[in-house]
Every structure is written in structure tokens, then in C-alpha cells.
Amino acid sequence: xxxxxxxxxxxxxxxxxxxxxxxxxxxxxxxxxxxxxxxxxxxxxxxxxxxxxxxxxxxxxxxxxxxxxxxxxxxxxxxxxxxxxxxxxxxxxxxxxxxxxxxxxxxxxxxxxxxxxxxxxxxxxxxxxxxxxxxxxxxxxxxxxxxxxxxxxxxxxxxxxxxxxxxxxxxxxxxxxxxxxxxxxxxxxxxxxxxxxxxxxxxxxxxxxxx
Length: 211
Prior knowledge:
The chain has a single domain, classed as 2-Layer Sandwich (Alpha-Beta Plaits). The chain has six helices and nine strands, in the order βαβββααββαββααβ. α1 runs antiparallel to α3 and α4 packs antiparallel against α6.
């Protein structure tokens, strides 16, 4: 089982603080996320675009995103209460509007494939699903099929605080390709079809794997 953790930190909109964060975060993150038991990979990046698909509106965001992949949920839980992560939270606190609330998802696939290592990653989340609503998976497959058989895709189900949610990721080579595919009527229809299952948000991310 793979656990994917997605975090959109809510940062204070203070330019001086954001400039300070740009120099503080890389060092603090490297110290915190290096050699963590069960942490398979860690990505940091920026939000290019954020949309509330259900309401056809743009989403506010702070521009920063973190994606972490774990081997199992117990590894994440152990890290969450560790002294190392507590120290990281203390470093980040002056920059934050509110505490971090991660989205957690599980999948039987070994990892997110090449979606997170693509030049751009489209992250689509469906929330407030019915407890047994597995049909969202069929709608997700319809979407990836409309995009193309060569689409790099991955999907997973919410766990713990994210129970009742579903997410999918698609890897893209360029923003131009993403835009041209997304503007196809059949793709737009398939994306909107996800809204029949729950509240849908979609993000375009530019991720960089951290060593």
C-alpha cells in the first residue's frame, strides 16, 4: 500500500515573510525529511493553477505545495508525532496562517508512477463521497481515457482525516499540452462528470523531487 500526502500550506501574505521563507524552508525541510523511516519520496513545488470545478471558480492558494509518499500509514503517523516534525512546525509557525492539514490517500499501487516526476502534475480531488461510492473510479477512468491512452495517471482513496475523498493525478509534459487537452469538449465533460460524486477541486502543480 502506498500513502500519498498532499499539503497546501496556508501562508501569511507578507512579502518580507515570504522572502524569508524562501531561504528558510529548503534547509529546514532537508533536515526534517532526510532519513525518515518509511518516507519513499518528497516533492516540493508551486501551484500554477487552482480551480473549484464544482463551482466553476478559482481557488485561493498560497502558491506552495508539498507531496510526500509513504510506504504505510503507520510510518506517517509515527512521523507526525515525532520530535523532528515538531521542530519543523516550530520553524514554520511564524509563516503560517493556520496549522497544516494534510490530505492523505492510500492506493494498492506501489507509487504514483511518473505523475509526480512529470514536468507538471494535475491533482484532482473529489470530497464528500458517499461511503460506498466506488463509481467515482469509473468516472476517473473515463477522464483519463478521454485525455488519451498514453496519459500518465494515478488515483487513490482518502484515509484517516481524508476518509470519504478520492484523488487522481495526471502527469503532463507541458502546460501547452495540458491546456489543449483540457479544452477538448469530451475532456471537459468527463471532468465535470466527477462533480456528480462530490465536491471537485483541481490543481496544476510544478513539483521538484527533493533529495
